[in-house]
Design goal:
Blueprint (H helix, E strand, L loop, with lengths): L13 E3 L51 E6 L3 E6 L9 E8 L2 E9 L6 H18 L4 H22 L1 H5 L3 E10 L2 E7 L3 E6 L5 E2 L6 H7 L4 H6 L10 E2 L8 E5 L5 E6 L1 H4 L5 H14 L3 H14 L6 E8 L2
Antiparallel strand pairs: 1-4, 2-3, 3-13, 4-5, 5-6, 6-7, 6-10, 7-11, 8-9, 8-12, 12-13
The structure holds zinc ion (2 copies).
Length: 320
Amino acid sequence: MTVSLECAACADERAAGAAFCESCGRTLATGSPAGAGPRCPACGPAGAVDADGYCGTCGMLAARPRDHAEADSSPVAAAVTDRGLRHQRNEDAMWLAVRGADTDAVVCDGVSASYDPDVASAVAAEAAGRVLAAGGDDLAGRVAEAITAAGDAVAELARTDPRRAASNPACTIVAACVRGTEIGYGWVGDSRAYWVPERGDARQLTEDDSWATHAIALGVDPQSAWNDPKAHAITAWLGADAGPVRPRTDTLRPGEAGMLLLCSDGLWNYLTDPAELASTVRAAVRKAPDLIAAARTLVAFANEAGGADNITVVLVPIHP
Ligand SMILES: [Zn+2]
Ligand SMILES: [Zn+2]
């Protein structure tokens, strides 16, 4: 399913992961043509599918808008999020806003053990995306501010709902702000940013807040650290129980052409080798007719490899 999140009233501005256009505030369709609700596969248009994706007539689970969503701002940026093959719903969320060549992008991954992780990731991506658009010239500072706002928004969920208060909704975040050839980025948790040059290995810009990363830093052999059942346990996240949010941020001014990639662990889990990640991204871009097709190819790669988790991919080419 291709989801267009273009706002017709504001053609130069496209935002995804949000239910409104960032510049004019007009409501955007998120998964089905404007005015048409999703169809029940059994009842057709007669079946009224509710917000959870179930048909009110026969009870069958129809496709939900978040199962697969795309934001196509080719050739400037493109993003795809997908439920994968083994999870009941997509708990990843994304935000992509493009103004000319400026790009704001956010990927969040809901923590499955928490209550309403899909809500956590959605509010975090939106809160961060709004701040990225409004911030000042210091790109790393702007990203830090965006992640802090996302943390506040997720923490707020637990204050307003007793079920959420009992098991704090939580998520990871990686955010980037591209202005010209300068990239500001930051993160909390294990969603990642990579620089993929036109030649050579991918460079992981983020350092996971995870058990495995800490264990390796303390001297544990990487292979055994990643094989440990605790490997993917995150050590920092956004949520009411996370304590004060301390996003790590940095800037990058690549002196060469290449691709900024933001992704959730649903992709990088299948591409842990930096050389393989780089060649997979470059091959996807080379073979695809446009950037959104390349992002779809990477999601398909993760699904073919097993699709064990939700998958989100954002691609932003940089040409210095
Ligand atoms: Zn039905
Ligand atoms: Zn994940």
